[in-house]
Design goal:
By secondary structure, the protein is an alpha+beta fold. Helices cover 33% and strands 26% of the residues. One of its GO terms (molecular function) is peptidase activity.
Length: 313
């Protein structure tokens, strides 16, 4: 008899407007979320590791132009993409992270490679890409990442002279795009993975919370796995993922209390908008957000699949 296993994902949190969401686009988002969940769940059902499951789930979202990661990554002020990712194995606290890569199709794969096949835990920019190419990764041209939507978004952002939109042609252009997954495998191991293109019009090699262990990603067997999404500067300041784990470990808070106390309380008080997905040692998933929406979904320990977009669902 197999032990319980489950997976949960997010595709970014922030302002997601119903009035600008067409039925066709909503259906495509929900389809991609389900596709991601099923990819990760298949790994778990076959006895695979939580690490492999979260990588499989995140890869699906990186390959979709709908999400701000991989193919759908937003553009920097120089009309390029610079992507970040991280992964953590709750079994041995092993981690891998990369930041500022421009020519890697699936950044989450490279983060796992850093974790498994390097003596380091965090590589950036040209060094991260040199490690990738030394390990057989294909050089992916920037053209692969170019989408008209992201280019138009960048131009509007430059016109607004910032990196937040109050008016948008899309239902989620004011969403803090990140994708992530958490999972519990049949061996009782937890894992978390996060991947992002950052924020539109970013400059100076800006890096947010997604690749930072303890801020955007954390996993610890017997406790919790967490992947965050939001304005990274605030998540770094509050070390959100690590704080969730600490509250559960030291205060013995349940997963919902730990997550909501931070997202709805301390983070919100300093102006931080966003959310997270977390999973406890029993495979219970919890989504917490202080924004109008978060693309998200889960397949629970009995196989029930749910996918949602708005905060009131």
């Amino acid at each position: 008899m197999s032990k319980p296993f489950s997976i949960a994902i997010h595709g970014g949190a922030g302002t997601i407007l119903r009035e600008k969401m067409t039925q066709e686009l909503q259906d495509e988002f929900l389809h991609q979320l389900e596709k991601s969940l099923r990819a990760g769940h298949k790994v778990l059902a076959q006895g695979g590791s939580a690490v492999d499951a979260v990588v499989s789930a995140v890869t699906v979202m990186e390959d979709s132009p709908l999400f701000n990661a991989g193919k759908g990554a937003v553009m920097t002020s120089k009309e390029m993409v610079e992507m970040d990712a991280s992964i953590m194995d709750g079994q041995d606290h092993n981690v891998g992270a990369i930041a500022g890569v421009q020519h890697i199709k699936n950044p989450i794969h490279l983060a796992r490679q850093v974790m498994q096949d390097s003596e380091h835990v965090f590589l950036i920019g040209e060094g991260a890409e040199a490690f990738a190419f030394d390990n057989g990764y294909a050089f992916t041209e920037q053209d692969y990442f170019f989408t008209e939507r992201r280019y138009e978004q960048l131009l509007r952002m430059k016109q607004a002279q910032g990196f937040a939109l109050s008016e948008s042609e899309y239902p989620d252009d004011d969403k803090h795009g990140t994708v992530g997954a958490v999972a519990l495998d049949q061996q009782g191991n937890l894992a978390a993975a996060t991947s992002t293109g950052g924020v539109t019009n970013k400059q100076y090699g800006r890096v947010g919370d997604s690749p930072i262990i303890g801020a955007g990603t954390y996993a610890e067997n017997g406790n919790v796995a967490v992947s965050c999404t939001g304005m990274g500067e605030f998540f770094i300041r509050k070390m959100v993922a690590g704080d969730v784990a600490a509250r559960m470990r030291y205060l013995q808070e349940d997963i919902a209390t730990a997550c909501d106390t931070i997202i709805q309380g301390e983070l919100k008080r300093i102006g931080g908008e966003g959310g997270l997905v977390a999973m406890d040692a029993q495979g219970q998933a919890h989504f917490s957000m202080n924004s109008s929406g978060m693309y998200r979904g889960a397949i629970d320990t009995v196989g029930n699949l749910t996918v949602k977009i708005y905060s009131d669902e």
